[in-house]
Amino acid sequence: MKKFYPAALIFFCLILTVPVVHAQEGEGHSKSGEEHEENPLWKWVNLLVLVGAVGYLLRKPAREFFETRKKDITSGLERARTAQEESSRRMNEIEKRLSQLSQEIASLRTQADTESAREREAILTDAKRDVERLVDQSRQEIDRIARGIERDIKGKIADAVIDRAGQKLETQMTEDDQKRVVVRFLNKV
Q1: Are 9 and 49 in contact (CB under 8 A)?
Q2: Cβ neighbours for 36, distance < 8 A, ≥ 6 positions apart
Q3: What is the pLDDT of residues 11-64, one digit of tens each?
């Protein structure tokens, strides 16, 4: 039944839009093809009926079109708002990271300074230990060489003393002295 109303409305509109020709009452028909003037009121009535009928027929498709368009625009605005919130959130994260980056750089610089100072101290400690070890080795080597030289000198001095004592004994020792020395030596053994 609803489909009948639009069809009837279109038919009615077409009938109303057909120009209304008024025949003159006394003459019956128009003379020599002359047209009679239309009433301007009928033109306006026809226009209003036509516009009303087109508006009525296009109301539902236009409403659906505008509803769909409204939904598309609303969803587009929602997506844009979501994208803007996401970009704002990411921008805040980036700014936060950048602000923390300077702190991290300062922290890393402090840490590097501390580590380099610690490393410098370790190197100095190792160097001092190496120097002390070298000094100790040098002292031990010097002591060893000095003891060797001292032994050599003592040996040479002892040899020289013994040689001199031997010479002195040979010149000053008599045969009786030599016998006593040999007897004493034998008694000790």
Answers
A1: no
A2: 21, 22, 23, 24, 30
A3: 665 665 555 444 333 444 444 444 545 678 888 888 888 888 888 888 888 889
CA distance 67 to 55: 17
Query: Which tokens belong to 181?
Result: 């020395």
Q: What is the DSSP string of 113-153?
A: HHHHHHHHHHHHHHHHHHHHHHHHHHHHHHHHHHHHHHHHH
Burial of 67 (0-12, 13-18, 19+ CB in 10 A): exposed
The first and second tokens of residue 70, run together, are 């409204």
- Supply angle C-alpha 73, 77, 78, rounded to 5: 115
Place of tokens 């028909």: 29
Rounded distance between C-alpha atoms, residue 36 and residue 38, angstroms: 6
